[in-house]
Every structure is written in C-alpha cells, then in structure tokens.
Amino acid sequence: MAAPIRASSIKTRVFTELAWHSLFIRTLLIRPEAVELANFVPELTIIDMPSFRADPKRHGVRSENVVAIDFARKIVLIGGSYYAGEMKKSVFTTLNYYLPAKGVMPMHCSANVGPKGDTAIFFGLSGTGKTTLSADPKRTLIGDDEHGWGKDGVFNFEGGCYAKCIKLSKEAEPEILRRQQALWRGAGERACSTRTPAWPDFDDGSKTENTRSAYPLDFIPNASRTGRAGQPKNVVMLAADAFGVLPPIAKLSPAQAMYHFLSGYTAKVAGTERGLGNEPQPEFSTCFGSPFLPLDPSVYGNMLRELIAKHDVDCWLVNTGWTGGKYGTGSRMPIKVTRALLTAALERLACATSNSAPTNISALRCRPRCRACRATSSTRSTPGRTRPSSTRPRVRWSACSRRTLPSSKRRSMPKSAPPRRK
Fold this sequence. Notes:
Layout (H helix, E strand, L loop, with lengths): L11 E5 L2 H10 L15 E6 L6 H4 L6 E5 L4 E5 L5 H14 L6 E9 L5 E5 L6 H5 L5 E4 L2 E5 L2 E4 L3 E5 L9 H10 L3 E3 L4 E3 L2 E2 L11 E5 L11 E2 L2 E8 L9 E4 L1 H10 L1 E4 L12 E4 L12 H14 L3 E6 L2 E2 L7 E2 L2 H12 L24 H6 L21 H7 L2 H4 L12
Parallel strand pairs: 1-2, 2-4, 6-16, 16-20
Antiparallel strand pairs: 3-4, 5-6, 5-7, 5-8, 8-9, 9-15, 10-14, 11-14, 12-13, 17-20, 18-19, 21-22
Helix pairs in contact: 6-7
C-alpha cells in the first residue's frame, strides 16, 4: 500500500519474477496489518518481469527495457530491468498522476520533524543527501524519498528506506550504519566486495558508486510510526555541485526557490551511472523528478508556489557537492559540516555571516524570526544590508549578529557593507 491517508493511498498488488524483488517491494511500501488483508482489494497491479525483452519495432518502444503504465486500468509492466527501484518509482509515478487533482502535492523528497513540530522537507536528486540528511538523530524521520503535501501537512508514501551505501561510516551516517550492522537482512543491490563473509566492504567502489540497501522505516529508532507530520516550516533544495560554484548554504526567496525547483540541478560524477567519463556532467531534472512526472511541470510548480506562500515557508539551497574547487581539484563537502549548517538554518541559528565567519556556530544565535531576519529576507532592498542570494556565497546579516553577540565581540564584527551603486 502506498500512502497512509485513506483518501490519497493506493492499494497495490505486485507480481515478481524474482524472490528478492518481492522482498524489496514489501520492504519499501507500507505493509497492511493482517486484519486489513481480508478486505484488501488492489487498485494498482505491477507485473515485474526482468527476463522479458521488448521488441522496439513490434511494441513501439526505444529499447528492450520497458516500463509501461496504463493509467486508465492502473496496470504497470516492467521488463528487461533487474533494478528493483523501478517498482517503487512506478507507484510514485502513478501517485504523481492522480494526487494533484485531490489537492495533494506529490514530491520527490525526504522529510523530518523537530522536537517543536517544525517539519522540513528536502528536495534533491539521487546522491544529493536526502536520505543521509533527513536521518538526523535529533529529529524524527518521516521518510527518505517520496511524500505528499496536502491540507493536513506532509505524509510519507512508503514504509521503507532506500539508502546509498558507498563509504557508509559511523561518523557521517551513524543511524543508517547501525541499522545495517544490526540486521543485515536488508535487500542489497549492486553488491560490493566483502571484508568477511558476513559483512560487505562499503568503501569498495570498484563495481559501482551506487550500492544501495533497502530496510523498513521502523528500523530507524527515531522514525515516525504514523508517517505523517504537520505543515512544513522549511523547504531545502539539495544539489551536489561538482563545479565548485554553489555556496555551502544560502537562503532563497520564494522566487529563487521556484527557479531551483523547476531547474532540479545537480551534477553526475564518474561511477554513478553507466557511460559517464572522468569529467562531471551537469544534470537538470525538472521538479527533482522529471522521469516520474506524467503531468506538465507547471502543475507541480504552481502547487508548490501556493503552498510556500500559504504557510510562510522558509526556503534554502544546500550544496552537498564540492568545495575548494571542482571535482578532481577540491574535496566533497563533509557531511558533518553540511549537517551543522543545516541544523543551524532549521533552528534559526544561521542569522549572521561575514567575510570572517566565526568558528563557533553557536555564536550566530538569534531569536527565531527576529526583526533583522525578516528584514533581510524581504524582497525590498534595505540600505546597509545585503539580501541573501544563491549566486552570492558570502552574505552579511550583520544587523542581526551585532545585536545578538556579546558586547565584547561586537567591536570585532565587520560593519555592514554599503549598498552597491548601479
């Protein structure tokens, strides 16, 4: 079953050729209780046949691999692909077709909620950090990949997680690694070599950088048991920029957020997909999920724009890619640093930056939604303050920082830059 809310859910029956594909989809979708099975009538049927090869001339397709969806009869045929993720993405595509008419915005994103009920959603393509950053031990995990946003808030479409395992470490991703060590019954894909017969070497990228593992959501200790949360307070756009251009974090205006949502930018690097060379390639996927959008992108874009305005949502751009230079020259942004910046943003601590940023992020503390923050996020220009921009890495919000820092430190803070002349 996909989605926990009855009005938005779709009961799904899956026929698989391979047993591990059956285990995978049972892990990823929401598993109904035993008492519900007596009256379970499937609405969507998926037929998963990796051994089937389509004939492009006969069937009118472009290759032997095929994912065909009949939205009228709600039937999906998957052929020629051993990638188990096609099943879950077929369900997602179907929901993307039906839910907008019900007033629900389907999203390719992860989501979590803080102790004070502040929900955050994380848009991003594969490899940008949706699963990693949403699995925060200080926040409750709602889900890591597919959600809906409606009148009652955010809800997860799935009952499991699908995490990338390359270079999985205790320091960067403790919750995900702990689950793998505790169970190791999760369905693993694109297997890597093993240090011992019982444990794989996640540092081995000789076969692929895209090794993944599927596990039930309730294996994460702080995961939500309902898969639901209130209206979001923050929307985060994730991009793994491999060209060293995007800043580590930037606050976006609603217009800038819509630009990044419709662009869906990230970068592909060698080892993540077949056919990539040694140089990174820019990737643009509309709404961070172009292959799964059966309707015009403007439908999803307009829904997001209206929801951001209605609920006064703060928007952020976070670069989980390279810093200090492009791919091959610089280094990948440390997950610990990205998580610290993101935590500061979500908790309203990141209200001041300067050309000489303090090393202690707690020094950037200010009152939530204080007057200076509202002024800097305003669309009107204010003399002496520089508005945040996704294209300007260094941002000064010194009006806020000079007010909230101790008096002994205020003297060392640089004054606001004068407004630029046209």
